[in-house]
Input
Amino acid sequence: MPTITEKASDGTSTILDLGDVEVVLSIRAWAAVIGVGYSSAKRMLANGDGPVKVRLSRNRVGVTASAHRTWLASRRIET
Output
């Protein structure tokens, strides 16, 4: 089951269980999930090399967990 760990400024961590809920990740959170920097993630999305984005507000864009999984599956390499 996918989870996200958030670290608070006081050093404590919270683990969020994504379960069956459609979660929207910020671009920064998505970058952390795939292990790239924020600028690289933004560049990937701008070039169309990432998952489908969703507009959350006028100035906020995110990636749904399901779009991330679909994108990840499309990048599988057969060895």
